[in-house]
């Protein structure tokens, strides 16, 4: 299968349908080899616009969702971004491309997924640091971040994650149980948080292991 061609066609369609707006998002979507992130038996489906199983009962988000979240996060070159829910590492790789010389810090609760994603991201040359941990605590050691996003759905965005983003920074997350919405929070300089609600989405629930 010609993966490069399939990827080009996919991104062309995402642009036509309005799912990719920012040039950095387009560049990232055109570059990251999604087929390297899905299980071998799913490779042929890697450039269809749909979620795919990645093991441990988890799924890699559909390409249009990764693109939409990257547009909403709107990271700049050089940014340091916090991700909660590494999964297979695909979304982190897209963010890594979008921040260029910046760094992505990613927290994953499932040790096997964290290890595999970390090895894969290293092999592919992405500057993504992966840590096994509970995303409800964020990753305080590297705060403040320029932005953050979640790829699993809590009932509301964890306070720790909001607090670890600098004033002016954004947080993109699916929130809710059952009925989920994509939200974007913006931390203002005066300490208040602006909230916008975007479309209905479906993500795996954020695991509340250690509460
Ligand atoms: N962005 C990923 C998709 C991940 S699916 C990708 O591109 O593949 C959501 C991930 O969130 C799963 O890997 C799941 O294990 C993880 N997760 C669920 N609850 C979590 C928590 N409390 N802290 C950190 N990660 C969590």
UniProtKB/TrEMBL annotation:
Keyword Methyltransferase in record: yes
EC number: 2.1.1.77
Taxonomy, superkingdom: Archaea
Protein's UniProt keywords contain S-adenosyl-L-methionine: yes
Keywords: Cytoplasm, Methyltransferase, S-adenosyl-L-methionine, Transferase
SUPFAM superfamilies on file: S-adenosyl-L-methionine-dependent methyltransferases
Any one Gene Ontology cellular component term annotated for this protein: cytoplasm
A single GO BP: protein repair
Residues of the active site: 61
Membrane-spanning segments: none
Main localization of the protein described in the UniProt heading: cytoplasm
Reaction catalysed by this enzyme: [protein]-L-isoaspartate + S-adenosyl-L-methionine = [protein]-L-isoaspartate alpha-methyl ester + S-adenosyl-L-homocysteine
Compartment(s) of residence: Cytoplasm
InterPro entries per record: PCMT (IPR000682), SAM-dependent_MTases_sf (IPR029063)
GO molecular function: protein-L-isoaspartate (D-aspartate) O-methyltransferase activity
NCBIfam families (UniProt xref): pimt, PRK00312.1
Function of the molecule: Catalyzes the methyl esterification of L-isoaspartyl residues in peptides and proteins that result from spontaneous decomposition of normal L-aspartyl and L-asparaginyl residues. It plays a role in the repair and/or degradation of damaged proteins.
Family membership: Belongs to the methyltransferase superfamily. L-isoaspartyl/D-aspartyl protein methyltransferase family.
Protein name as catalogued: Protein-L-isoaspartate O-methyltransferase
Organism: Haloplanus aerogenes
Encoding gene per record: pcm
């Amino acid at each position: 299968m010609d993966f490069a061609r399939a990827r080009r066609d996919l991104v062309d369609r995402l642009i036509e349908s309005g799912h990719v707006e920012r040039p950095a998002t387009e560049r990232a979507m055109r570059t990251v080899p999604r087929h390297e992130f899905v299980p071998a038996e799913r490779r042929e489906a890697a450039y269809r616009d749909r979620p795919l199983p990645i093991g441990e009962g988890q799924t890699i988000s559909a390409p249009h969702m990764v693109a939409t979240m990257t547009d909403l996060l709107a990271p700049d070159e050089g940014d340091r971004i916090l991700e909660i829910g590494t999964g297979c590492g695909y979304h982190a790789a897209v963010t890594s491309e979008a921040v260029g010389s910046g760094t992505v810090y990613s927290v994953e609760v499932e040790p096997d997924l964290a290890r595999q994603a970390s090895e894969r991201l290293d092999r592919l040359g992405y500057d993504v640091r992966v840590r096994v941990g509970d995303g409800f605590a964020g990753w305080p050691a590297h705060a403040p971040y320029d932005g953050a996003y979640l790829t699993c759905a809590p009932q509301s965005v964890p306070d720790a994650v909001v607090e670890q983003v600098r004033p002016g920074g954004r947080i993109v997350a699916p929130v809710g149980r059952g009925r989920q919405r994509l939200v974007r929070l913006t931390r203002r300089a005066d300490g208040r948080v602006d909230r916008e609600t975007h479309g209905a989405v479906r993500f795996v629930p954020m695991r509340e292991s250690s509460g």
